[in-house]
Amino acid sequence: MHCSNPRRVTRQTHRCGIGFGGPINRQIGSVMASHQIPGWANFPIVTWLQTQLNVPVALENDANVAALAEAHLGSGRGHSSVFYVTLGSGVGGGMVLNGQLYQGELPGECEIGHLQLDRKGNTVESLCSGWAIDQTIKEAIRIYPTSVLAHLAPREPGGQYARLLGSALSQNDSVAYRIFAKLADDLAFGLSHVVNLFHPSALVLGGGLSLIGDRLREAVAQRLTPYLMPEFRPGPLIQLASLSEEVVLVGAFLLARNAYLSTLSTINT
Asked: What is the pTM of this model?
């Protein structure tokens, strides 16, 4: 459920689900930190929201609830094991096994964005996030001012550059292609560790960069295979997320529904 004014929640509401963008402590209902917005560290979000809504609240990481949504209602539907990766301002991940979220030790799990790709400290997030691609494109525009990317670049300060990649690729821009090829290879290398460790039946690509579309899906699939142990090749099915910007909202709804049904099951036994 999404409600712009929490005090207007109706009596028919039995649970609220939260997908928070950062590590959380689901046992005590607290935010551990936000890597995007300061001021959230150790905030007791469940207690606070329960006083606003007067209903029980279930808390999870946003990538986890997105994984739950895609596994049950999106591109991972029908697969027993699904790993979801979101390529947004940061990079996050979540895994669903037999319909249930995989949960490691607190305060989190499946943090593929923090997976190191070399001994220099480069991570999946530092190379494959929207923010990282923004910086790469800005530098490329400085070096190649006559490229298609440079002509497409926003003129206002603070404009988003990563979203230009798809348009520049469709115009056969060689600079854009080099950036794209490295993105696909870095992401495939990062995902190879997921596959070699867990061997899920499906990988789902979500977030803003996934809007590049099948070009990205196919490039990652092609580059993933050589990084896998021979017995796992060619690798799992790779799909684009299908729930778009609603994925966290849908996942938070499923989280709340599951918590409610679990409570009913406990009462009836």
From this structure: 0.91
